TrEMBL record:
It comes from Owenia fusiformis (Polychaete worm). ANK repeats lie at residues 66-98, 132-164, 165-197. PANTHER family: ANKYRIN REPEAT AND SOCS BOX PROTEIN 2, MYOTROPHIN. Transmembrane segments: none annotated. The keyword Manganese does not apply. Keywords: ANK repeat, Repeat. InterPro entries: Ankyrin_rpt (IPR002110), Ankyrin_rpt-contain_sf (IPR036770), Multifunctional_regulatory (IPR050745). This is Ankyrin repeat protein.
């Protein structure tokens, strides 16, 4: 098995060439080395080195202490190239971390539409929700990401899905004053009269948060 300290040193220095040399002369590496590599080197490894890591026994679905996989980290940082490589080599597109977040949810939360599109095309569950009940659409609307909200609704997302407080994407769009997302959701049949567990509608939440444009629209 490769000397872990050697691998760690190469990763800390972001030395792809040295890491490749270490892997070429070893018979086996730690199963979590691929994940460690992606995290430590900020997704700067060559595909040749990644292929070597797999060949030497790295587990493509290994998890860190937060339950995050290499694919989740790649999508969180918006690295489409590595998200593609990972899924093409068997990464679980629906793996969840300790908060029940999937790679798709991270892609949406951090604004990586390309990663989200790739994941969905390769079997990611579009209506998945975390421990708080938040879906990718809710995150997109909270961030005011109209492009993301449009893409999700065009791909059969549940527009009226609610979180643990029975609050929908429309309610969150109104809470954060995202007029464009609010308009888009209503135009695509979001329930404007739905109530949260506290009995509040989207209009009430818009008024409470001072989102004047949303209330007028």
């Amino acid at each position: 098995m490769a000397d872990y300290s050697e691998i760690k040193d190469a990763l800390e220095r972001k030395d792809d060439h040295q890491l490749k040399l270490i892997l070429q002369r070893t018979h086996k590496c730690h199963k979590d080395t691929l994940l460690l590599s992606l995290v430590r080197i900020k997704n700067k490894l060559s595909k040749e080195t990644l292929d070597l890591l797999l060949k030497k026994g790295a587990d493509i679905n290994a998890r860190d202490n937060y339950g995050m996989t290499a694919l989740i980290h790649a999508c969180r940082s918006g690295s489409l190239e590595y998200a593609q490589w990972l899924t093409e080599h068997g990464a679980d597109v629906n793996a969840r971390d300790n908060s029940c977040w999937t790679a798709l949810m991270y892609a949406r939360c951090y604004g990586s539409l390309e990663c989200a599109q790739w994941l969905t095309e390769h079997g990611a569950t579009i209506n998945a929700s975390g421990n708080d009940g938040w879906t990718a659409l809710i995150y997109a609307c909270c961030n005011g990401s109209l492009e993301c909200a449009q893409w999700l609704t065009e791909h059969d997302v549940d527009i009226n899905a609610n979180d643990n407080n029975v609050e929908t994407a429309l309610m969150w769009a109104c809470t954060y004053g995202s007029l464009k997302c609010t308009q888009w959701l209503i135009e695509h049949d979001a329930n404007i009269n739905a109530r949260s567990s506290a009995g509040l509608t989207a209009l009430m939440l818009a008024c409470r948060s001072g989102s004047l444009e949303c209330t007028q629209w």
